[in-house]
Amino acid sequence: MSSLLQASDLTHEEKVVWLEDPAGLDYVRQALDKTPRRRGKPRYYRDGRMVGFAELCDTAEADPDSGLQKRRVFYLLPHDRDAEPDGLYRAGAPGEAVDPRTIEPRRVGMKTERSQRGSAAAARTVA
Q: How far apart are CA 113 and CA 45, in angstroms?
């Protein structure tokens, strides 16, 4: 599904579950995946690793066409900044990347100086 999310996609989110501490990450990628359940760790089909996911409330209805729930998943790919600090995303970030510090249930994550330019750039602007 699309990684460009809107608040209306997230109205049934109840909780964000982190599998890794997001404090050490400049950004995470976010996407909507279709899963059979509202809660619990969803299956992961991408390269890289899942670092978190959203759980839905009891009133969340399944997609009428597929019978699946639309849930947000947070992930990183092998070439992302956390694994390759001097790599492709040394500066800049993928389009679906947001600062994990801005992620809350029912709110789309935001791009920040840190997510877009890296922790070193954010530290320079604060000092």
A: 29
Q: What residues contact 86, with CB distance under 8 A and at least 6 apart? A: none
Query: Distance (Å, rounded) from C-alpha 41 to C-alpha 54?
Result: 9
C-alpha dist (Å) from residue 8 to 11, 27, 106: 6, 22, 8
Q: What is the pLDDT along the chain (127 residues), one digit of tens a residue?
A: 344 788 888 999 999 999 999 999 999 999 999 999 999 999 998 999 999 999 999 999 999 999 999 999 999 999 999 999 999 998 889 999 999 999 999 999 999 999 998 765 554 444 4
In degrees and rounded to multiples of 5, residue 40 shows phi and psi of 85, 165
Q: What is the 3-state secondary structure (H, E, C) of 43-110?
A: CCCCCCEEEEEEEECCCCCCCCCCCCEEEEEEEECCCCCCCCCCCCCCCCCCCCEECHHHCECCECCC
The terminus-to-terminus CA distance of the chain in angstroms comes to 39
pTM assigned to the model: 0.88
Contact 100, 107 (CB under 8 A): no
